[in-house]
Amino acid sequence: MSGWVDVLGAAELQEGGRCTVDVAGKPVALVRVDGRVWAVDDTCPHRGGSMGQGDLQGHFLYCPLHAWSFDVRDGTAFFPRGARIACFEVREEGGRVLVRR
Ligand code: FES
C-alpha cells in the first residue's frame, strides 16, 4: 500500500543539498535542484553506495563509490548507459517534505 511519508523539514534541505532519509524503513536520497526536491533510491544499483552522500551536479547525482551518475528527474543513468535507479514522488506541504513510498 502506498502513501505519503513526512520525512524532513523543507528548510533542512537547501539548494544544491542532498541527504538520506528513511521512508518506511527504506533509505531514500533527497536532493534540491532549482528549488525543487527530488527523491531516488539511496542504494546505488552498482554496489550499494549511498547516493545521498554523492556529489550533485545539476540534476545528476554521482555515487560516492565509483561515480555512476543518475538524473534525479527520471532515474536514467548518464554513466553507465542503460543503468537506472528508482525514483519516488515528492511534494512539499506546510514546510515539510513528503515522499510517496
Ligand atoms: S557502488 Fe555506486 S557506482 Fe559503485
- CATH T-level topology: Rieske Iron-sulfur Protein
Q: Given the helix and strand composition, which structural class is it?
A: mainly beta
What is the CATH C level class, in words? Mainly Beta
Number of individual domains: 1
**Cofactors, ions, other ligands:** FE2/S2 (inorganic) cluster
Largest sheet, strands/sense/barrel: 4 strands, antiparallel
Taken in chain order, the helices and strands follow as EEEEEEEEEEE
- Mean pLDDT, to the nearest integer, reads 97
Overall geometric form: globular
* Terminal CA distance: 8 Å
Oligomer: single chain
CATH architecture: 3-layer Sandwich
Q: Say which CATH homologous superfamily is assigned.
A: Rieske [2Fe-2S] iron-sulphur domain
Which consecutive residue ranges, at least 5 long each, have pLDDT under 50? none
Instruction: Give the amount of beta strand, in percent.
Output: over 45%
Strand order of the largest sheet: 2-3-4-9
Question: Helix proportion of residues, in percent?
Answer: under 10%
Total of DSSP H or I helical runs spanning 4+ residues: 0
Radius of gyration: 12 Å
